[in-house]
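sorry for the late reply, my laptop died twice this morning and i had to redo everyting from scratch. anyway the thing you sent over, i finally got around to it. pasting the sequence first so we're on the same page, its 145 residues, then the predicted structure underneath. double check i copied it right bc i was rushing
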Amino acid sequence: MEIGVIIRRKDIEMVEHDCTVADAVIRMVRRNVGSLIVKRREQSEAYGIITRQDVLFKVLANNLDLSEVKVSEVMSTPVVILNNIHLDIRHAAKAMANAGVSNIVVFDAGDLYGFLSSTDIIEALANDLVRTSLNSQSNDVSGGC
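ok and here's the structure:
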C-alpha cells in the first residue's frame, strides 16, 4: 500500500516557532492530533515537530510553565521526511524505526504533501485486513477461520 493513499492532506496541522507550548497543546486537543509541524522561519531552515511526548518529557517532567516555554525550545528538528508519496508503507515504517520516531513528514515534487504517523499506518493496515477478510468470507461458503 502506498503512503500517498493513506495520508490525509487536509490534516497537516502547523504551528509557529514562537507559539507557546500551551497554545500548541490547545491546538492538538482541539484538532485531535498528537503532533504539530513547526513552520520554518526561513526557506533554508528545516521543519520541526512538536509531539505529545515533547510536552510530557521536555516540559511537564521538568516542571516548566507551558505558557512560558516556546515551541522552538522543545520541538524536534529536523523532522524525518520522505520525498515520494508512492513508496510502500513498509518503507515509511522502516524510516520511522531507523530514526526512532512515530511521525514522518511527506513531500511530493518538493511540496509539503502531508503527515504520516504510526497510527495512520496501523489503521490503514487494519482496514486493509478487515476488507481482505470480508472478501474472503464472502467467497468462502464454509464460513471457517
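The chain has one domain: 3-139.
thats about all i looked at so far, will dig more tmrw
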